[in-house]
Amino acid sequence: MSSKGFIFDLDGVIVDTAKYHFLAWKKIADQLGIEFTEENNELLKGVSRVRSLDIILELGRKEVSQQDKNKWLLQKNEDYLSQLVDMDSSEILPAVFEVLQFLKDHNQPIALGSASKNARPILEKTGILSYFDAIVDGNDVTNAKPDPEVFLIAAQLLNIKPENAIVFEDSVAGIQAANIAKMTSIGIGDKTVLHQAKFIFKDFTKISQEFIEDLIKAP
């Protein structure tokens, strides 16, 4: 068994697709006459597409039929995917590539653990698919974070014990999922929001090679 393994969330950790999600949801909110701000968008981080629509409808105190919901969900995904067409490696967040390369050079297993159902095409378009030994996305899980299912499956695929997994996350639900799974949680973002994480960095540029080495060597 490899001693350690590294699991990355996708949106907001490896790539910043949050802006694309926001624009696609805003378009729907506008059509429904619901005010939807970037602040409201924080509520949708790490949340499934179905739940995201429910949150927007709750914000606008709107009741719609299941048929309408299905229509909006389909539209949102088509809008979102149309924006991904032009994605390339420039979308990778600063210093993420260097961390992936460092882990690869040190023979550390790497997995993706994301709620996104579009994870594979995004990794392909940004040119980093080959860095991942395992990919667990929204197509592979039944329970959304903070349920740890996505990370537990990833650890299993990497052939490591959950307590030897290190998780990079930008959402509160993701940090909670990692903590529930007894994994080492590393928050990427605002320390006031992600205070439940074991370690917190504003972004990957703040993570030193020494820190990663210490994680690899830690008992």
The helical percent reads 40-55%
- What is the second-level CATH architecture of the largest domain? 3-Layer(aba) Sandwich
Query: What's the structural domain tally?
Result: 2
Number of strands: 6
Looking at this structure, what is the CATH superfamily of the largest domain?
HAD superfamily/HAD-like
* Mean of all residue-level pLDDT scores: 94
CATH topology of the largest domain: Rossmann fold
Radius of gyration: 17 Å
| Overall SS class | alpha/beta
Instruction: Name the shape in a single word.
Output: globular
Structural description of this entry:
It is globular, with a radius of gyration of 17 Å. The chain is built from 9 helices and 6 strands. 42% of the residues lie in helices and 11% in strands. With 219 residues, it is of the alpha/beta class. The model has no long low-confidence stretch (mean pLDDT 94). Strands 3-2-1-4-5-6 form a 6-stranded parallel beta sheet. α1 runs antiparallel to α4. It folds into 2 domains: 137 residues, HAD superfamily/HAD-like (Rossmann fold, 3-Layer(aba) Sandwich); 67 residues, Putative phosphatase, domain 2 (DNA polymerase, domain 1).
Concise structural overview:
The protein has 219 residues and is of the alpha/beta class. The chain is 42% helix and 11% strand.
